[in-house]
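User: Sequence in, structure out. Go.
Assistant: Echoing your sequence, followed by the structure tokens.
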Amino acid sequence: MKRPPYRHMGVPRHSITAAFWEKSYRNDDAFWDHGVPAPGLVDFLKRDKYKPGTILVPGCGRGHDCRQLAEHGFTVTGLDLSAKAMTEARALADGQVTYRVGDFLKPGRTRYDWVFEHTCFCAINPKLRDRYVQALVKTLKPGGHFLAIFYNIQPRQGPPFGTTRTELCERFGPHFRLLLERVPRSYSNRKGKELLMLWEKTT
């Protein structure tokens, strides 16, 4: 039987921990996983100009986006809080991608040419978004690129927690220059609800 979308809507924000995501994968309840890469990412890689490099994909889950990036010449590191998700991602990747269990909000010393965001920003407690921006700035090399597909919705509760274009520009604008913006092709249940942005680090 098909699960209803967003069955975790209304989970208290303080409950959104690594254990929460681990339990979701272990219970086969990763309702956000469509089994294929984000359509907006697929289109970007086909039609836009970019220079592949090292890329970090935080909150990568089973790694569908990671494998798509690897197929287009990127050296990919997938990062997720869930050990179960990383085990499943490694099985699917067949050595194409490096996967690590870890917290994007606690960046290490490695710096990347790119960061790709899809369903990580909307998954964390909105109170942690300042830390997300700080981690992103620290993770990217000077002149690095941040490619993101944000969930441009405004639900009363989450996850997923929504955002607006205004918030995104206010948060990322001081550190990045916006190079590209469009409403991408999306999964059927997200049609018209996502916003693709490409930013270049300036600070």
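User: And one key feature?
Assistant: The helical segments are 18-26, 39-47, 64-71, 83-93, 129-139, 165-172.
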